[in-house]
Amino acid sequence: MTDATTTPSRTPVTRLRDVIRLINSWADHLPPDIVALAARVFPAVVFWQSARTKVDGFTITDSTYFLFEQVYALPVIPPATAALLATLAEHLLPVLLILGLLSRFSALGLLVMTAVIQIFVFPEAWVTHGLWAVALVVVLAHGPGRLSLDHLLRLDRGTLRGNGPA
Fold first, then answer.
1. What is residue 159's predicted lDDT score, i.e. its pLDDT?
2. What does the DSSP assignment read for 81-121?
3. How far is it, in rounded angstroms, from Cα 120 to Cα 141?
4. Distance between CA 141 and CA 96 in Å, rounded?
5. What is the pLDDT at residue 5?
6. What single-letter DSSP state applies at residue 148?
7. pTM score > 0.90 for this model?
8. pLDDT of residue 146
9. What does the angle CA 154 – CA 115 – CA 139 come to, to the nearest 5 degrees?
10. Cα 37-144-93 angle, rounded to 5 deg
11. Are 103 and 150 in contact (CB under 8 A)?
12. Which secondary structure element, helix H or strand E, spans residue 22, and what is its range?
């Protein structure tokens, strides 16, 4: 048995350093391809769900046109054109992103849509849009990972840690 004179006391700073080392060790072993997959899937699902509210079958709903005319009212682009483009993009880009096909292009398209929504439509929702943007920027900056068609087809240079060149 040891007493207090022979055992060094663990200060709160020392304990905090131990916790930080543990977290860093765990984070170093997190598979980057899982991170890339999550960064692709989660924002894609948000946009896909939004897309599905805009259509009835293969037809854009009257309520969608109304929203683009009265609520969203984007500058420069006519409401009917904005409704059509947004509906198409919200259906196509999430599918490509989840598949990991043309991932950086898809992430950029959804990031632009996020910026438009943030700036012109719902500026008070910056926290939500910021979360979408971070995930999309991860895909832009680091690529789709090895769990993607881009990697399989060698369409992306695979910059994620540990992936090496595609």
1. 52
2. HHHHHHHHHHHHHHHHHHHTSSHHHHHHHHHHHHHHIIIII
3. 25
4. 17
5. 56
6. S
7. no
8. 94
9. 25
10. 85
11. yes
12. helix 12-28
Map residue 56 onto helix, strand or coil.
strand
Q: Tell how far CA 115 is from the center of its chain.
A: 13
- The residue with tokens 């087809």 is 153
pLDDT one digit per residue (tens) for the chain, 166 residues: 555 555 567 888 899 898 888 888 887 777 889 999 999 999 999 999 999 999 999 999 999 999 999 999 899 999 999 999 999 999 999 999 999 999 999 999 999 999 999 999 999 999 999 999 999 999 999 999 999 999 999 998 755 544 444 3
How many Cα atoms are found within 13 Å in the side-chain-facing hemisphere of 69? Answer: 7
Whether the CB-CB separation of 133 and 3 falls below 8 Å is answered with no
* Residue-range domain boundaries for the chain: 32-152
Which residue, among 138, 156, 136, has the nearest Cα to 146 in the 3D structure?
Answer: 156
Q: What is the largest CA-CA distance in the chain?
A: 80
Query: What residue type is 91 in one-letter code?
Result: H
Written as six digits, the tokens of 135 are 């995930």
CA distances from 107 to 4, 38, 69, 145 (A): 58, 13, 26, 13
At 55, which helix (H) or strand (E)? strand 55-56
